[in-house]
Amino acid sequence: MEAVRQRRRLEDMSSRRWADLPKDLPSLIAEKLQTHIDMLRLRSVCASWRSSIPPIRRSPLFPVKLPTFINEIEMFTGELNNYDEHFILSESTVYRLDPPASNSSPENSGSWLLRIEETSVGLTRFENPLSKRFVRQPPYGFPKVLNLLDFRVSELCRVYNVSLNSGLSWMGISILSVALSSRPRSSSDDYVLLAVRSDCKLCSILLGGDYKCTIIQDYDGLIFTDVINFNGKFYTIDTCCRVLVFEELSLQLIEDFRPAMPAPNICCCLRLVKLSGILLLVCPPFKGLTDFRCFKLNQELRDLEEVNSFDDQVLFLGDQFSFSVSTLEFTGLEPNCLYFASQFHSSIKRDGVMQNVGNIGVFKVGGGNGGPLKYYPGNSKIFWPPPGWLQPGPPASSQDVVSVDMQ
């Protein structure tokens, strides 16, 4: 009991020392922070800092209701509440979790990937890090409440996904890929969304206004496969490796070129990804799990340079997004690998062990071999099951919904 009182006295003294710092210091620090989790940590320093720093406001506020497509060209605007079916733009965040600094156990020192979506009603839910599948049931022993401030947390990327609220494809149209502008057009929430539809047409939506949705008709003959926001510009690519670059706010075409192709058998399902500050073109295999090919896009020379090594980097290729990490900073990963969302349909165990890895594959760049993640157990621990150091709280049952404390 005396130890508890002593710890509380030390915490009170620490809070007073923080509160005695210059009044404008918290706001000056807050201006330099760019991620939600960093802002949470700053506000958690002490009560006075929490009251002086307003909660971070997400812009735009997610999820966002979007119009459905009436036909190939014509869209509707105005109030959407009168329609039962609509598209929903959601945002989720991929975090890297590490055990607290006080945890020095070697067997519990590995990092863990966690993808979280905050819903419109203030709840959170887990998602497969690389696909759209939700983790509906926690594994045995998983804590009922997961407080991210109890761990060392880094934000890796934000993921944007467009889906139909009914879960069905409306008129056969869905969204294959989506990218959001890095800033609004003005001080409001009028962000620009650029998307590739399932009919391979390119369309844009202005958020925050009347949600007018427009097909970019000048390129009606192109079959687009992907779109990405890279260095404040929208990059798109079609099945013939034609690259179009747009200014992200005005959507004015900046560049239009077809790079020289180093191999005639490049696949048609091309993906654009970021890796260590460069833009890569990834060619998934037509069949099987091998023969991914990666190319660096050189805009000055307008050609493609094949990449056979990621060095210490690891690339994660999701359904509609990608991100990379360094194995020097992320324990539990093998360098020079590509993790990807695949069409595996492994049986899902009741405790959720396979729920987060059943549709993930791994490919060793330059080695030409790969397969389902379950065949590479040394590489699967970053996904599932959760590490032992996540177990300090009361365990959840298979019927519980795990909540994540991010306040």
Automatic annotation (TrEMBL):
Q: Which PANTHER family match?
A: F-BOX PROTEIN SKIP23, F-BOX PROTEIN SKIP23-LIKE ISOFORM X1
Q: Which InterPro entries match?
A: KIB1-4_b-propeller, SCF_F-box_domain
Quote the protein name from its UniProt record. KIB1-4 beta-propeller domain-containing protein
Q: Write down the Pfam families for this protein, in alphabetical order.
A: Beta-prop_KIB1-4
TM region(s), chain numbering: none
The KIB1-4 beta-propeller domain sits at 89-363
